[in-house]
Amino acid sequence: MEHITLLLAIVVVTALVFDFTNGFHDTANAMATTISTGALKPKTAVAMSAVLNLVGAFLSVEVAKTISGGIINEEGIRTEVIFAALVGAILWNLLTWLLGLPSSSSHALFGGLIGAAVMSAGWSAVNGSTIVTKVLIPAVAAPIVAGLAAAAATKLTYRIKANPEAKATAKGYRAGQIASAGLVSLAHGTNDAQKTMGIITLALVTQGVVAPGSNPPLWVIVSAGMAIALGTYLGGWRIIRTMGKGLTDLQPQQGFAAQTSAATVILASSHLGFSLSTTQSCSGAVMGAGLGRKGGVVRWSTATRMFVAWGLTLPAAGLVGAGAEFLTKQGTWGIVLVAVLLVGGSAVIWALSRRQPVDQHNVTADDLDAPAEAPGVVTTAIAAVTPPPAAGSVAAVADEGLKSTIPTPGPTDPAAPPAPAAAV
């Protein structure tokens, strides 16, 4: 670390700030369904997720190598380009957090990096084939695969559950949710923490601290893991509300199916070096779980806003990154101006979020829930071919409903007239 200059130190700190925003922006991926179904209390859930994010950061470096040496050409890239890319990614993360939209932190980083690199050295600085195969194709495939897997898993859980007692069944699936949420958190640390490792390693390459193609140094792995864990612990409550309540209403069985499906997709992609969006994978799994239960409704108005945010992430972060790089090319005053704009923009977004704060105390409050939405065409079509639940389950739920709606008779008043005999 003896070769680290002031500019490189600023870039490293900015990268860790991005990693921090990635943590609280993506907490919902692992814990939104667990919190919404009551399997874990909000603060317990984010604490568990933070620890497992930290552990996951040490499991692999394949995604980090994809970012540090795959998306853009390392030769001729200045350290200022990395700084500009991070500015675009951080501002987009904060804006979508303010709006409660589960957009992709990964694609925000990629967009900022591509925009800044193109502004600095032209389109030749970008490896188009790597972007297509390891970014764009996984971006489209991941939510679809996770959604289909979650829908199938949800149908299966409702069909094969052996215990007809609704309460006992729900308790078992809540335990399964906790385990699967832990798996998603581990997968998130394995995939997303590596993105910051990759961007810091790329900055180190531009300064000649490490050789091109090198694995991230140990201090980079540790610092990136701790930054994303801290962000996760603070919790992105606005996005947790959207994924846990805004997309669909989940029962424990659906939460278990959604989280298990998403974790499988994320871990498989991390092993292959695909830098996919954990947000898109988990969101697709939540919608698939909503469609997999007969009578389940996906709120397509919220989903549409989310899809629009997904589509805008790469170009929007890219434009901000390109603008920031244009300023940094002007010299020291440009770098200082970009830093001031980053701090000022972040402060404005934080101030706006205080107008209607969301935290662990009101993240599941009824007055914050999305309004009821009629089933759409997709929901209706899937529900029409989904078999009804088992008879034992229906009876148990009906019996439970009767117990909760028929009041217990109070003591008889001696002065009251006798009740009329029931008609035969």
TrEMBL record:
One of the protein's GO biological processes: phosphate ion transmembrane transport
Domain of life: Bacteria
Name under which the protein is recorded: Phosphate transporter
Membrane topology label: Multi-pass membrane protein
Pfam families from the UniProt entry: PHO4
Cross-referenced InterPro entries: Phos_transporter
Biased composition (Pro residues): 408-424
Region (Disordered): 402-424
Annotated compartments: Membrane
Parts of the chain that traverse the membrane: 43-61, 81-101, 107-126, 135-154, 218-240, 307-327, 333-352
Alphabetized UniProt keyword annotations: Membrane, Phosphate transport, Transmembrane, Transmembrane helix, Transport
GO MF annotation: an example: phosphate transmembrane transporter activity
A cellular component term, taken from the record's GO annotations: membrane
Family under the similarity heading: Belongs to the inorganic phosphate transporter (PiT) (TC 2.A.20) family.
